[in-house]
Amino acid sequence: MFRKILIANRGEIACRIIKTAKRMGLATVAVYSDADADALHVEMADEAIHLGPPPAAQSYLLIDKIVAACKETGAEAVHPGYGFLSERAAFAKALADSNIIFIGPNPRAIEAMGDKIESKKFASAANVNVVPGYLGVIENAEEAVRIARDIGYPVMLKASAGGGGKGMRVAFTDAEVIEGFTRARSEAASSFGDDRVFVEKFIVNPRHIEIQVLGDKYGNVIHLNERECSIQRRNQKVIEEAPSPLLDEKTRREMGAQAVALAKAVDYDSAGTVEFVAGQDKSFYFLEMNTRLQVEHPVTELITGVDLVEQMIRVAAGEPLQLKQENVKINGWAVESRIYAEDPTRNFLPSIGRLVKYRPPEEKREGGVTVRNDTGVTEGREISIHYDPMIAKLVTHAPDRLRAIVAQADALDRFAIDGIRHNIPFLSSLMQSPRWRSGNLSTGFIAEEYPEGFSAPRPKGEVAHTIAAIATLIDHIGNERKRKISGQLRGGRPVEFERERVCMLGDERFDVTLDAQGESLIVRFVGGDERTHRVSSHWRPGEIVLEGEIDGRPIFVQARPILNGHELSHQGVAVAARVYTQREAELVAYMPKKKDAGVSKYLLCPMPGLVKTIDVTEGQEVKAGDALCMVEAMKMENVLRAERDVTVKKILAKPGDSLAVDAVIMEFG
Asked: ATP-grasp domain spans which residues (predicted)?
């Protein structure tokens, strides 16, 4: 076994690998760029080596610097994590040339499976079901259109060296192929240094299911069942689960057998993932093989009890697999949510800045439920524009799917982040979706369920009454504290508060009466939909997360103070809640409401980013849908289009400018 390993990565995956290495008694070396000098993975490792400036091409992708770091520190092996150099055969070969072990598959397997075009040819020769498509290199957009017409629309354009949803576009028309080819090729070149793009048939209403495989250096290969990753946005996975609600035992066995056969054909000797696109009828086709650890590996670990990082290290050290196929079981259900630094109300555009507050739920195993949070950040640190926007992976495990989902929803309600925009409200809302809970999934789920994009839903029905009851409890706790203030004007007797209250959730009014009973508060709704709730909590003003009970069941609500009230968040709903006396409510009704300033005359930068192109000129008349400019952020290219017919009056930015969120790019006449 090794004594010291280097982790050629950053963020949550570097931290994840360090945890297992430390448990195994291995010393660890971190590498970092200027942007990550104070990052968590640097703090956790025993040693750290500086690589260079923030751009990955000048730091994390420099093979010679990582080899030099190994020699400087005496690291005997390198774990690449995912992304960056994890699927570069040249990296594995460079390490081997320096007598350093690569904790991953052999270079031949990486070359055969890491290239999406070559892997499909290889899989087809091995009699694995392959999606119909054109696997040759496409030289230009016109050729891509001709091929797409031959295959039949819709088609998927994919970067051959791609991954993580980058360099991928779905096209339904010739025009979409032309634009998609250009964007996919550009993203592929900037993200992977390889601009090759291929075209394949896009399966309508598909599901994305993948099989985890594990092999050693002695020809032993097993699979650890499947993960379903159908909840995606822009071809980027958002929620994963294991096992899949689609598969039966027969289909699972067939998919596993194909995955193992493919892995054996290339002498696969590490952890890897064979990805399939599946029809709702359980038919399935090979998509690609990722010759590395997957982002979503924790759900597999939780249902099998296998530490995949440990297995990769042991295999790389020359140990044979101790686990046999017949010993691989499915224990319960696991759900993973990816917490991203992005604004779901602005079409999920990236967000950067300082994590003013970062309070994840406690990691624990209790009552048959496990909560796990894989992260690479801590409170006070920066989310950089240079890397992937993922902050953390929140994973819950329970005896069955519904309980795992409920545990995930509760954990999301307890996950507090301030300082940047993030997708927790969207994830919380999604957890309440009847379609999601029923398991009726497809890769089009988000587009179909949120056709107009995401906006925090208004509280209604049971959720509205729950939030109103909690708002009333918060107000009551505050009033109880006021009773204890010394030196009040009314000497001799304590201040008394009215039992009748008005709770305003935004513009919606709830009339309630209060009755304190021991540590609980009885909240009775009067007028209209009359109901009663018993609520209790040891919450104190200033705490972000209220943990308590309502009618005997646990509840978690985030509470942030605003003028005369609190912003409450629960199950994806966020609302300004204020509680008044009857007289206060009468007076508040006379207060004028502030009107929002109009910004329709301007194109504002929707996220911090770099202006790559300006596609119009001053004085030009443009139609709704025309491209105005393109802004790059976090390795993604975002085309900004005109929302209506306008004339460009003034252009205030130029290519190469680095803009803050809401910076004015151009003015319309």
From this structure: 120-317
